[in-house]
Amino acid sequence: MSFLKLKNISKKYDKDTLVVENLCLELEKKEFLVLLGPSGCGKSTLLRIVSGLESPSGGVLLLNGKRINDLAPKDRKIGMVFQNYALYPHLSVFDNLAFPLKVKKINKVSIKNKVNEIAEIVGLNNYLDRKPKQLSGGQKQRVALARALIVNPDIFLFDEPLSNLDATLRHSMRQEILRIHNSSGAASIYVTHD
Ligand code: ADP
Predict the structure, then answer these.
(1) Burial classification of residue 148, based on how many CB atoms lie within 10 Å of its CB (0-12 exposed, 13-18 middle, 19 or more buried)
(2) At what angle do helices 108-121 and 93-103 cross, to 10 degrees?
(3) Is the pLDDT of residue 189 over 90?
(4) Which tens digit of pLDDT belongs to each residue from 96-143?
(5) Rg (Cα) of the chain, in Å, rounded?
(6) Among 16, 44, 57, 82, which is best to mutate for testing ligand 1, by the most ligand atoms less than 8 A from CB?
(7) Could you tell me which of 54, 32, 31 has the C-alpha nearest to residue 42?
(8) Which residue among 14, 43, 45 is best mutated to probe the pocket of ligand 1, counting the most ligand atoms within 8 A of its Cβ?
(9) Is 0.85 topped by the overall pTM?
């Protein structure tokens, strides 16, 4: 039995436009899957379906053999990293990282310990008091990566995470993503047009 299974997934935003058509896909734990396709072909839509931000119009999503079509995003152990970082601008780095744990009602001491642990892993410990606007693009993407990592996800979803970074940073961040993937034991889906 595969870890994540998509059976005949389709998605229509309106009745005439089929954005994803009968997509079947299986993913094992520790597997790193890259989906390559031109802009507009439905890559983000697919990630949003896996994360629960969108519902499929047809088909079944199975995690460990269990149907998760109706499972709320917060109840799926998924860490998602977006091209535009999607950080909360009014919150400090600490609070951005703490956010997914607060949603899960984890106690303050555990949150502090976990944020410090994850900040150490991605080299952000000296930036915890800063707001996103006080960070470089690379540092913002590191916060986004750390925020995905902090929930101990079963699945990482990467939506063009390197597009806003320059060539040097793209290279180092690519290594970082692989390192995090390899050390976490999670499955990853990475979408890109590049
Ligand atoms: P990609 O990530 O491959 O660039 P998307 O999944 O973002 O592609 O979009 C696929 C298609 O679905 C595009 O034609 C886009 O315009 C359309 N689309 C995406 N989101 C919506 C939405 N919320 N409502 C209507 N159409 C959408």
Answers:
(1) buried
(2) 130
(3) yes
(4) 999 989 988 899 999 999 999 999 888 899 999 999 999 998 899 999
(5) 17
(6) 44
(7) 54
(8) 45
(9) yes
